[in-house]
Amino acid sequence: MQKKYSYFIYFLVSILGVTLFSCKDQFNQEDYTAYFGGEIENPKNNYLIFMKGDQVIDTFHLDKNNRFFHKFDSLTPGLYSFKNEPEYQYVYFEKNDSLLIQLNANDFDNSLVFCGRGDEKNNFLMELYLQNEADRNALFEAYEKNVTYFEKSCKNSYNKAKSLYLKRKAFIKWGAEFDKLALASVELNNAYKKEVYPIAHEFRTGNTIKNKLPADYYNYRKAIDLNESALVNYSPFVNYVTALLNNMVLTQSKTMDDEMSLKNNILKLEIADKLIKNNHVKNLVVNNIANMYLLSDQCTENNTKFFNLYAKIATDEKLKKQIMATAKKIHKLHEHAKLPELTLTDTKGNKVLLPSAIKQKTVLFFWTKESESHAVFAHKKIAELKAKYPTYQFVAINVDENTNDWQTELNKHTFEPAFELHTSNFEELKEKWIINKIHRTMIINANGTIKNAFVSLFDVNFEDQLKD
Protein backbone atom coordinates (compact mmCIF):
# COMPACT_ATOMS: atom_id res chain seq x y z
CA MET A 1 0.00 0.00 0.00
CA GLN A 2 1.16 3.55 -0.62
CA LYS A 3 2.33 5.31 2.55
CA LYS A 4 1.57 8.97 3.17
CA TYR A 5 2.95 11.42 5.70
CA SER A 6 0.27 13.33 7.58
CA TYR A 7 0.09 17.09 7.87
CA PHE A 8 1.34 16.68 11.42
CA ILE A 9 4.60 15.12 10.24
CA TYR A 10 5.21 17.82 7.65
CA PHE A 11 4.42 20.50 10.21
CA LEU A 12 6.96 19.21 12.72
CA VAL A 13 9.63 18.76 10.11
CA SER A 14 9.18 22.30 8.84
CA ILE A 15 9.06 23.91 12.29
CA LEU A 16 11.75 21.83 13.98
CA GLY A 17 13.90 21.04 10.97
CA VAL A 18 16.74 23.39 11.81
CA THR A 19 16.85 22.23 15.42
CA LEU A 20 16.34 18.50 14.99
CA PHE A 21 17.02 17.30 11.49
CA SER A 22 19.89 19.36 10.18
CA CYS A 23 23.40 18.13 9.51
CA LYS A 24 25.62 16.66 12.23
CA ASP A 25 27.53 19.82 13.05
CA GLN A 26 24.34 21.30 14.52
CA PHE A 27 24.70 18.93 17.48
CA ASN A 28 27.04 18.99 20.46
CA GLN A 29 29.09 15.90 19.75
CA GLU A 30 29.61 15.29 23.47
CA ASP A 31 25.95 14.73 24.30
CA TYR A 32 23.47 12.03 23.33
CA THR A 33 20.31 14.09 23.03
CA ALA A 34 17.63 12.46 20.88
CA TYR A 35 14.00 13.08 19.98
CA PHE A 36 11.11 10.71 19.34
CA GLY A 37 7.57 11.68 18.35
CA GLY A 38 4.73 10.93 16.02
CA GLU A 39 1.06 10.38 15.38
CA ILE A 40 -1.00 7.19 15.78
CA GLU A 41 -4.30 6.84 13.98
CA ASN A 42 -6.88 4.57 15.62
CA PRO A 43 -4.72 3.83 18.68
CA LYS A 44 -5.70 0.85 20.82
CA ASN A 45 -4.89 2.82 23.96
CA ASN A 46 -3.80 6.38 24.71
CA TYR A 47 -0.13 5.72 25.37
CA LEU A 48 3.02 4.35 23.78
CA ILE A 49 5.52 2.22 25.72
CA PHE A 50 9.19 2.74 24.83
CA MET A 51 11.48 -0.19 25.66
CA LYS A 52 15.08 -1.39 25.54
CA GLY A 53 14.90 -5.15 25.38
CA ASP A 54 12.34 -6.18 27.99
CA GLN A 55 12.91 -3.07 30.13
CA VAL A 56 10.46 -0.17 29.96
CA ILE A 57 12.38 3.09 29.42
CA ASP A 58 9.43 5.47 29.30
CA THR A 59 5.72 5.80 28.60
CA PHE A 60 4.50 8.49 26.20
CA HIS A 61 0.88 9.57 26.56
CA LEU A 62 -0.97 10.61 23.42
CA ASP A 63 -2.61 14.02 23.34
CA LYS A 64 -6.18 14.67 22.13
CA ASN A 65 -4.92 14.44 18.53
CA ASN A 66 -3.21 11.07 19.19
CA ARG A 67 0.25 12.64 19.00
CA PHE A 68 3.31 12.49 21.21
CA PHE A 69 6.73 14.13 21.26
CA HIS A 70 9.60 13.45 23.65
CA LYS A 71 13.13 14.71 24.15
CA PHE A 72 15.75 12.33 25.59
CA ASP A 73 18.49 14.24 27.37
CA SER A 74 20.67 11.19 26.80
CA LEU A 75 19.84 8.07 24.79
CA THR A 76 22.35 5.27 24.29
CA PRO A 77 22.59 4.31 20.60
CA GLY A 78 21.06 0.96 19.70
CA LEU A 79 17.89 -1.01 19.11
CA TYR A 80 14.68 -0.09 20.95
CA SER A 81 11.04 -1.02 20.58
CA PHE A 82 7.76 0.81 21.01
CA LYS A 83 4.31 -0.61 21.77
CA ASN A 84 0.77 0.54 21.32
CA GLU A 85 -0.39 -2.72 22.83
CA PRO A 86 -0.86 -5.35 21.63
CA GLU A 87 1.26 -4.32 18.60
CA TYR A 88 4.92 -3.40 18.66
CA GLN A 89 7.82 -2.59 16.35
CA TYR A 90 11.51 -1.79 16.52
CA VAL A 91 13.27 1.55 16.17
CA TYR A 92 17.02 2.05 15.87
CA PHE A 93 18.67 5.18 17.29
CA GLU A 94 22.16 6.39 16.56
CA LYS A 95 23.69 9.32 18.37
CA ASN A 96 21.48 12.46 18.18
CA ASP A 97 18.88 10.84 15.93
CA SER A 98 15.50 12.60 15.86
CA LEU A 99 12.69 10.42 14.60
CA LEU A 100 9.01 10.90 13.94
CA ILE A 101 6.64 8.06 13.16
CA GLN A 102 3.23 7.84 11.63
CA LEU A 103 1.11 4.70 11.77
CA ASN A 104 -2.43 3.45 11.75
CA ALA A 105 -2.91 0.94 14.58
CA ASN A 106 -5.50 -0.93 12.49
CA ASP A 107 -2.72 -1.83 10.04
CA PHE A 108 0.27 -1.36 12.31
CA ASP A 109 3.20 -2.75 10.32
CA ASN A 110 2.05 -1.86 6.82
CA SER A 111 1.27 1.74 7.72
CA LEU A 112 4.37 2.55 9.80
CA VAL A 113 6.73 5.17 8.33
CA PHE A 114 9.64 7.12 9.83
CA CYS A 115 10.90 10.56 8.96
CA GLY A 116 13.64 12.80 10.30
CA ARG A 117 17.26 12.22 11.22
CA GLY A 118 17.80 8.43 11.11
CA ASP A 119 14.68 7.66 9.09
CA GLU A 120 16.39 5.89 6.18
CA LYS A 121 17.79 3.11 8.35
CA ASN A 122 14.49 2.52 10.10
CA ASN A 123 12.43 2.61 6.94
CA PHE A 124 14.82 0.03 5.49
CA LEU A 125 14.28 -2.27 8.48
CA MET A 126 10.52 -1.98 7.99
CA GLU A 127 10.80 -2.60 4.25
CA LEU A 128 12.87 -5.71 4.91
CA TYR A 129 10.55 -6.87 7.70
CA LEU A 130 7.50 -6.65 5.44
CA GLN A 131 9.35 -8.41 2.63
CA ASN A 132 10.37 -11.20 5.01
CA GLU A 133 6.80 -11.59 6.29
CA ALA A 134 5.41 -11.79 2.75
CA ASP A 135 8.15 -14.27 1.91
CA ARG A 136 7.24 -16.53 4.86
CA ASN A 137 3.59 -16.53 3.82
CA ALA A 138 4.54 -17.37 0.25
CA LEU A 139 6.64 -20.31 1.48
CA PHE A 140 3.76 -21.84 3.44
CA GLU A 141 3.06 -24.39 0.69
CA ALA A 142 6.76 -24.97 -0.04
CA TYR A 143 7.23 -26.72 3.31
CA GLU A 144 5.30 -29.66 1.88
CA LYS A 145 7.51 -29.92 -1.23
CA ASN A 146 10.75 -31.87 -1.73
CA VAL A 147 14.04 -30.37 -0.59
CA THR A 148 15.11 -29.31 -4.11
CA TYR A 149 11.96 -27.24 -4.57
CA PHE A 150 12.21 -25.80 -1.07
CA GLU A 151 15.85 -24.79 -1.39
CA LYS A 152 15.20 -23.13 -4.73
CA SER A 153 12.36 -21.12 -3.17
CA CYS A 154 14.59 -20.18 -0.24
CA LYS A 155 17.44 -19.13 -2.50
CA ASN A 156 15.19 -16.90 -4.60
CA SER A 157 13.79 -15.08 -1.58
CA TYR A 158 17.23 -14.84 0.05
CA ASN A 159 18.76 -13.29 -3.08
CA LYS A 160 15.94 -10.77 -3.20
CA ALA A 161 16.47 -9.75 0.43
CA LYS A 162 20.26 -9.66 0.11
CA SER A 163 20.01 -7.49 -2.99
CA LEU A 164 17.78 -5.03 -1.13
CA TYR A 165 20.23 -4.97 1.78
CA LEU A 166 23.26 -4.28 -0.45
CA LYS A 167 21.41 -1.59 -2.39
CA ARG A 168 20.30 0.28 0.74
CA LYS A 169 23.69 -0.11 2.44
CA ALA A 170 25.48 1.47 -0.51
CA PHE A 171 23.03 4.36 -0.59
CA ILE A 172 22.60 5.07 3.14
CA LYS A 173 26.19 4.21 4.19
CA TRP A 174 25.26 3.19 7.73
CA GLY A 175 27.70 2.27 10.51
CA ALA A 176 29.06 -1.09 11.62
CA GLU A 177 26.67 -1.62 14.55
CA PHE A 178 23.56 -1.04 12.47
CA ASP A 179 25.01 -3.19 9.71
CA LYS A 180 25.18 -6.10 12.15
CA LEU A 181 21.45 -5.76 12.74
CA ALA A 182 20.56 -5.19 9.08
CA LEU A 183 22.54 -8.20 7.87
CA ALA A 184 21.04 -10.35 10.63
CA SER A 185 17.57 -9.47 9.35
CA VAL A 186 18.53 -11.05 6.04
CA GLU A 187 20.55 -14.03 7.22
CA LEU A 188 18.40 -15.08 10.17
CA ASN A 189 15.17 -15.05 8.18
CA ASN A 190 16.73 -17.46 5.69
CA ALA A 191 18.28 -19.61 8.44
CA TYR A 192 15.00 -19.78 10.35
CA LYS A 193 13.12 -21.14 7.34
CA LYS A 194 15.76 -23.81 6.75
CA GLU A 195 15.61 -24.92 10.38
CA VAL A 196 11.81 -25.09 10.24
CA TYR A 197 11.62 -27.02 6.97
CA PRO A 198 12.47 -30.56 8.22
CA ILE A 199 10.03 -30.15 11.13
CA ALA A 200 7.20 -28.61 9.11
CA HIS A 201 7.63 -31.07 6.24
CA GLU A 202 7.35 -34.12 8.47
CA PHE A 203 4.59 -32.59 10.56
CA ARG A 204 2.42 -31.79 7.56
CA THR A 205 3.19 -34.74 5.25
CA GLY A 206 4.13 -37.54 7.66
CA ASN A 207 7.29 -38.12 5.61
CA THR A 208 10.69 -37.96 7.31
CA ILE A 209 13.15 -35.85 5.36
CA LYS A 210 15.84 -35.14 7.97
CA ASN A 211 18.12 -37.91 6.63
CA LYS A 212 17.64 -36.89 2.99
CA LEU A 213 18.97 -33.34 3.18
CA PRO A 214 22.07 -32.35 1.15
CA ALA A 215 25.40 -32.62 2.98
CA ASP A 216 25.85 -28.82 2.92
CA TYR A 217 22.27 -28.01 3.97
CA TYR A 218 23.24 -26.62 7.39
CA ASN A 219 26.39 -24.75 6.33
CA TYR A 220 24.80 -21.41 7.28
CA ARG A 221 24.98 -22.38 10.96
CA LYS A 222 28.75 -21.82 10.98
CA ALA A 223 28.34 -18.08 10.42
CA ILE A 224 25.77 -17.48 13.18
CA ASP A 225 27.00 -16.56 16.66
CA LEU A 226 24.47 -17.74 19.24
CA ASN A 227 25.94 -15.40 21.85
CA GLU A 228 25.85 -12.18 19.82
CA SER A 229 25.07 -9.56 22.46
CA ALA A 230 23.88 -6.97 19.94
CA LEU A 231 21.06 -9.26 18.82
CA VAL A 232 19.79 -10.70 22.10
CA ASN A 233 16.60 -8.61 22.04
CA TYR A 234 15.91 -8.94 18.33
CA SER A 235 13.03 -11.34 17.65
CA PRO A 236 14.50 -12.82 14.40
CA PHE A 237 17.49 -13.98 16.46
CA VAL A 238 15.42 -15.53 19.24
CA ASN A 239 13.09 -17.15 16.68
CA TYR A 240 16.06 -18.67 14.87
CA VAL A 241 17.65 -20.07 18.03
CA THR A 242 14.34 -21.61 19.08
CA ALA A 243 13.89 -23.21 15.63
CA LEU A 244 17.49 -24.45 15.75
CA LEU A 245 16.90 -26.25 19.04
CA ASN A 246 13.64 -27.77 17.80
CA ASN A 247 15.39 -29.07 14.71
CA MET A 248 18.40 -30.43 16.59
CA VAL A 249 16.06 -32.41 18.81
CA LEU A 250 14.07 -33.66 15.82
CA THR A 251 17.30 -34.87 14.23
CA GLN A 252 17.84 -37.10 17.26
CA SER A 253 14.21 -38.29 17.46
CA LYS A 254 12.87 -41.41 15.83
CA THR A 255 9.46 -39.98 14.95
CA MET A 256 7.53 -36.74 15.03
CA ASP A 257 5.43 -38.22 17.83
CA ASP A 258 8.43 -37.72 20.08
CA GLU A 259 9.02 -34.10 19.10
CA MET A 260 7.02 -32.57 21.93
CA SER A 261 7.66 -35.34 24.48
CA LEU A 262 9.08 -34.79 27.93
CA LYS A 263 12.38 -36.38 26.91
CA ASN A 264 12.85 -34.14 23.91
CA ASN A 265 11.91 -30.94 25.71
CA ILE A 266 14.39 -31.73 28.44
CA LEU A 267 16.94 -32.29 25.66
CA LYS A 268 16.12 -28.84 24.27
CA LEU A 269 16.84 -27.29 27.65
CA GLU A 270 20.14 -29.18 27.91
CA ILE A 271 21.25 -28.13 24.41
CA ALA A 272 20.33 -24.49 25.08
CA ASP A 273 22.24 -24.55 28.34
CA LYS A 274 25.31 -25.96 26.58
CA LEU A 275 25.28 -23.83 23.41
CA ILE A 276 24.20 -20.44 24.76
CA LYS A 277 26.45 -18.62 27.21
CA ASN A 278 24.75 -15.22 27.12
CA ASN A 279 22.31 -15.35 30.05
CA HIS A 280 19.79 -13.00 28.49
CA VAL A 281 19.57 -15.01 25.28
CA LYS A 282 19.41 -18.23 27.29
CA ASN A 283 16.54 -16.96 29.43
CA LEU A 284 14.51 -15.89 26.41
CA VAL A 285 15.07 -19.21 24.66
CA VAL A 286 14.40 -21.54 27.60
CA ASN A 287 11.24 -19.59 28.42
CA ASN A 288 10.09 -20.01 24.84
CA ILE A 289 10.76 -23.75 25.19
CA ALA A 290 8.77 -23.80 28.43
CA ASN A 291 5.83 -21.98 26.83
CA MET A 292 5.69 -24.42 23.94
CA TYR A 293 6.03 -27.41 26.27
CA LEU A 294 3.10 -26.20 28.34
CA LEU A 295 0.95 -26.20 25.22
CA SER A 296 1.78 -29.83 24.49
CA ASP A 297 2.06 -31.87 27.69
CA GLN A 298 -0.58 -31.72 30.41
CA CYS A 299 0.84 -34.59 32.49
CA THR A 300 1.47 -33.33 36.04
CA GLU A 301 4.30 -35.81 36.61
CA ASN A 302 6.02 -34.76 33.38
CA ASN A 303 5.58 -31.08 34.19
CA THR A 304 7.35 -31.55 37.53
CA LYS A 305 10.35 -33.21 35.88
CA PHE A 306 10.55 -30.55 33.18
CA PHE A 307 10.28 -27.59 35.53
CA ASN A 308 12.86 -28.97 37.95
CA LEU A 309 15.45 -28.66 35.18
CA TYR A 310 13.98 -25.42 33.82
CA ALA A 311 14.29 -23.81 37.27
CA LYS A 312 17.99 -24.67 37.39
CA ILE A 313 18.73 -23.13 33.99
CA ALA A 314 16.47 -20.05 33.93
CA THR A 315 17.73 -17.12 36.00
CA ASP A 316 15.11 -14.47 35.19
CA GLU A 317 12.62 -14.57 38.08
CA LYS A 318 10.13 -12.32 36.29
CA LEU A 319 9.96 -14.66 33.30
CA LYS A 320 9.69 -17.66 35.63
CA LYS A 321 6.62 -16.18 37.27
CA GLN A 322 5.03 -15.56 33.86
CA ILE A 323 5.67 -19.17 32.85
CA MET A 324 4.08 -20.55 36.01
CA ALA A 325 1.07 -18.24 35.58
CA THR A 326 0.63 -19.58 32.04
CA ALA A 327 0.86 -23.14 33.39
CA LYS A 328 -2.09 -22.49 35.71
CA LYS A 329 -4.20 -21.08 32.87
CA ILE A 330 -3.38 -23.99 30.58
CA HIS A 331 -4.36 -26.48 33.26
CA LYS A 332 -7.90 -25.12 33.05
CA LEU A 333 -8.04 -26.26 29.40
CA HIS A 334 -7.53 -29.95 30.14
CA GLU A 335 -9.63 -32.70 28.55
CA HIS A 336 -13.30 -32.73 29.71
CA ALA A 337 -13.01 -29.23 31.23
CA LYS A 338 -15.65 -26.67 30.24
CA LEU A 339 -14.36 -24.25 27.61
CA PRO A 340 -14.11 -20.75 29.19
CA GLU A 341 -16.83 -18.44 27.89
CA LEU A 342 -16.16 -15.84 25.20
CA THR A 343 -18.50 -13.57 23.26
CA LEU A 344 -17.84 -13.35 19.52
CA THR A 345 -19.64 -11.78 16.55
CA ASP A 346 -21.07 -13.48 13.45
CA THR A 347 -21.16 -12.02 9.94
CA LYS A 348 -24.58 -10.40 10.59
CA GLY A 349 -23.37 -8.59 13.69
CA ASN A 350 -25.08 -10.94 16.15
CA LYS A 351 -23.36 -11.86 19.41
CA VAL A 352 -22.44 -15.53 19.78
CA LEU A 353 -21.51 -16.91 23.19
CA LEU A 354 -19.15 -19.88 23.18
CA PRO A 355 -19.37 -22.60 24.36
CA SER A 356 -23.11 -22.06 25.06
CA ALA A 357 -23.86 -21.92 21.32
CA ILE A 358 -22.15 -25.27 20.71
CA LYS A 359 -24.73 -28.04 20.23
CA GLN A 360 -22.65 -30.57 18.30
CA LYS A 361 -19.05 -31.71 18.05
CA THR A 362 -17.03 -28.69 16.95
CA VAL A 363 -13.62 -27.74 15.59
CA LEU A 364 -12.47 -24.19 16.35
CA PHE A 365 -9.64 -22.75 14.26
CA PHE A 366 -8.16 -19.26 13.97
CA TRP A 367 -6.98 -17.01 11.17
CA THR A 368 -5.86 -13.47 10.34
CA LYS A 369 -5.32 -11.40 7.23
CA GLU A 370 -1.71 -10.99 8.36
CA SER A 371 -1.11 -14.66 7.49
CA GLU A 372 -3.09 -14.97 4.29
CA SER A 373 -1.55 -18.25 3.14
CA HIS A 374 -2.49 -19.91 6.41
CA ALA A 375 -6.03 -18.52 6.17
CA VAL A 376 -6.48 -19.92 2.66
CA PHE A 377 -4.99 -23.33 3.40
CA ALA A 378 -6.86 -23.65 6.70
CA HIS A 379 -10.22 -23.03 5.02
CA LYS A 380 -9.28 -25.43 2.22
CA LYS A 381 -8.44 -28.09 4.79
CA ILE A 382 -11.74 -27.45 6.57
CA ALA A 383 -13.66 -27.95 3.31
CA GLU A 384 -12.09 -31.41 3.00
CA LEU A 385 -12.80 -32.30 6.63
CA LYS A 386 -16.41 -31.10 6.50
CA ALA A 387 -17.13 -33.50 3.65
CA LYS A 388 -15.58 -36.41 5.57
CA TYR A 389 -16.97 -35.61 9.03
CA PRO A 390 -20.53 -34.26 8.63
CA THR A 391 -21.32 -34.68 12.34
CA TYR A 392 -18.83 -31.88 13.13
CA GLN A 393 -19.35 -28.17 12.76
CA PHE A 394 -16.29 -26.09 11.86
CA VAL A 395 -15.96 -22.61 13.33
CA ALA A 396 -13.43 -20.11 11.95
CA ILE A 397 -12.48 -17.32 14.36
CA ASN A 398 -10.84 -14.24 12.91
CA VAL A 399 -8.53 -12.34 15.29
CA ASP A 400 -7.95 -9.13 13.31
CA GLU A 401 -8.56 -5.94 15.30
CA ASN A 402 -10.70 -4.29 12.63
CA THR A 403 -14.12 -5.80 11.85
CA ASN A 404 -14.08 -4.19 8.40
CA ASP A 405 -10.79 -5.94 7.58
CA TRP A 406 -12.42 -9.26 8.51
CA GLN A 407 -15.44 -8.59 6.30
CA THR A 408 -13.19 -7.50 3.43
CA GLU A 409 -11.16 -10.71 3.66
CA LEU A 410 -14.33 -12.82 3.71
CA ASN A 411 -15.60 -11.09 0.57
CA LYS A 412 -12.22 -11.37 -1.09
CA HIS A 413 -11.86 -15.12 -0.58
CA THR A 414 -15.52 -16.22 -0.36
CA PHE A 415 -14.73 -18.76 2.36
CA GLU A 416 -17.74 -21.10 2.55
CA PRO A 417 -17.18 -24.30 4.54
CA ALA A 418 -16.90 -22.82 8.04
CA PHE A 419 -19.16 -20.83 10.36
CA GLU A 420 -17.31 -17.50 10.49
CA LEU A 421 -16.92 -15.55 13.74
CA HIS A 422 -14.83 -12.59 14.82
CA THR A 423 -13.36 -11.48 18.12
CA SER A 424 -12.99 -7.79 18.85
CA ASN A 425 -10.99 -8.57 21.99
CA PHE A 426 -7.98 -10.67 21.06
CA GLU A 427 -6.41 -10.09 24.48
CA GLU A 428 -9.35 -11.79 26.19
CA LEU A 429 -9.11 -14.70 23.76
CA LYS A 430 -5.38 -15.04 24.46
CA GLU A 431 -6.00 -14.84 28.20
CA LYS A 432 -8.81 -17.41 28.41
CA TRP A 433 -7.96 -19.82 25.62
CA ILE A 434 -4.15 -19.30 25.60
CA ILE A 435 -4.08 -18.62 21.84
CA ASN A 436 -0.51 -17.52 21.20
CA LYS A 437 -0.14 -19.15 17.78
CA ILE A 438 -2.48 -18.69 14.85
CA HIS A 439 -2.03 -22.37 13.96
CA ARG A 440 -3.78 -23.56 17.15
CA THR A 441 -6.95 -25.62 16.74
CA MET A 442 -9.41 -26.76 19.43
CA ILE A 443 -11.75 -29.75 19.33
CA ILE A 444 -14.85 -29.31 21.49
CA ASN A 445 -17.41 -31.92 22.52
CA ALA A 446 -21.13 -31.42 21.84
CA ASN A 447 -21.70 -30.46 25.49
CA GLY A 448 -19.16 -27.62 25.33
CA THR A 449 -16.38 -29.48 27.11
CA ILE A 450 -12.87 -29.80 25.73
CA LYS A 451 -11.74 -32.86 23.81
CA ASN A 452 -8.34 -31.42 22.83
CA ALA A 453 -7.44 -27.73 23.11
CA PHE A 454 -3.93 -28.04 21.70
CA VAL A 455 -3.88 -29.46 18.18
CA SER A 456 -3.18 -28.26 14.65
CA LEU A 457 -5.20 -28.68 11.47
CA PHE A 458 -1.99 -29.49 9.65
CA ASP A 459 -0.84 -32.29 11.94
CA VAL A 460 -0.70 -35.42 9.79
CA ASN A 461 -2.57 -37.25 12.57
CA PHE A 462 -5.21 -34.56 13.11
CA GLU A 463 -8.09 -36.64 11.72
CA ASP A 464 -7.47 -39.31 14.33
CA GLN A 465 -8.73 -36.76 16.87
CA LEU A 466 -12.07 -36.52 15.05
CA LYS A 467 -12.80 -40.23 15.18
CA ASP A 468 -14.89 -41.51 18.08
From TrEMBL:
Coiled-coil features, chain-numbered ranges: none
PROSITE patterns to which the protein is assigned, alphabetical: PROKAR_LIPOPROTEIN, THIOREDOXIN_2
Keyword Zinc-finger appears in the UniProt entry: no
Spans through the membrane: 7-22
UniProt-listed InterPro entries: Thioredoxin-like_fold, Thioredoxin-like_sf, Thioredoxin_domain
Keywords: Membrane, Transmembrane, Transmembrane helix
Thioredoxin domain span: 333-468
Keyword Membrane part of the UniProt annotation: yes
SUPFAM superfamilies assigned to the protein according to its UniProt record, in alphabetical order: Thioredoxin-like (SSF52833)
Protein name as catalogued: Thioredoxin-like domain-containing protein
Organism lineage string: Bacteria, Pseudomonadati, Bacteroidota, Flavobacteriia, Flavobacteriales
